[in-house]
Amino acid sequence: MTYAPHRSAPARDLPSIEDDWDAGPHRRSSRSWIAGGAAVSAVLVAFGAWAVATSPAATVTGVLAGAPPTAQFTVAPTGLRCGVSSVGPSGLEQRATGQFCLLDVIVTNNGREPELFDSGAQRVHDANGEAYAVAEQAAVFLNDRSPALLDRIGPGQTVAGVLPFDVPVDARLSAATLGGGRSTPGVRVTLPDPS
Q1: Count of Cβ atoms closer than 10 Å to residue 173 Cβ
Q2: Which residues pair with 124 in a beta bridge?
Q3: Separation CA 175–CA 73 (nearest Å)
Q4: Quick one: where's region Disordered (predicted)?
Q5: What secondary structure does DSSP assign to 90-111, as a single string?
Q6: How much helix, strand and coil, in percent to the nearest 5, is found in the chain?
Q7: What is the DSSP letter of 117?
Q8: CB 3.0 to 4.6 Å from 103: which of 31, 36, 88, 163, for a disulfide?
C-alpha cells in the first residue's frame, strides 16, 4: 500500500472569513447594530442637552437688603426673640439648655415643584462666630399651624414660621445663614436686634 499525500487546495481558492462577512447577512446585521448604537447615543446626548437647558436656573433677586433667595427658597427674617426658656404644651415642653432664640421667618418656594424646607440646614451665628442649628423638636411645636413651615411648600407659596435656636444665655446673635438645603449653601443675612 502506498500512501498518497493529501493535497489541499491553494489558499487563494479557499473561502475566507472576510469573504463570508462581506458577502452575507452578517455584514448587514453588524451595520444595523452600529447604526442603532449611533442613533441611541445621539438620542442620549440630545436628552442630556435638553435636561440641562430646561432645568430651573438659580434666581438671585433681593427680598431684603442683602438677603437674596437661594435657587429653591427665599427666606426673609421678620423678627427675633431671645430669652425663651421653654416651648411647647405643658407636660411636653422642650426646655432650652441655655435660652431659645426664636427667629420669625417668611419662606417662599421659588421652584416649580412642592418641596420640603430644610429647617435643619438653617444656622444663626453669634458675635464670636459660633454657629447654632435649629432645635428640631422645638420647631415641631412652634410650627403646628396650617400651612406649616415643616410641610411641603407648594410652588410660589409663601409660609410664615418660627425657627428656634438653643443658644447659650450670654450669646448675642448677629447673623443667620438661611435658605440652605441639600443643594444650596444658603445666604448670610444680618439679624435684627432681639425684642
Answers
A1: 21
A2: 132, 176
A3: 18
A4: 1-28
A5: TTTPEEEEEEEEEEEEEEEE-S
A6: 25, 35, 40
A7: -
A8: 163
CA–CA separation, 26 vs 194, rounded Å?
A: 80
pTM of the predicted model as reported, rounded to 2 decimal places: 0.62
Grid cell, residue 193, equals 436686634
CA distance readout (Å), 50 to 40, 47, 57, 172, 183: 15, 5, 14, 49, 21
Cβ contact 93:84 at 8 Å: no
For the chain, the maximum distance between any two Cα atoms, rounded to a whole number of angstroms, is: 122
Q: Burial letters for 131-153: b for 16+ Cβ neighbours within 10 Å, e otherwise?
A: ebebbeebbbbbbeeeebbbeeb
Specify the amino acid at residue 134: V
Beta bridge partners of 139: none
Assigned C-alpha cell, 3: 500512501
Residue 19, SS3?
Answer: helix
Beta bridge partners of 77: 105
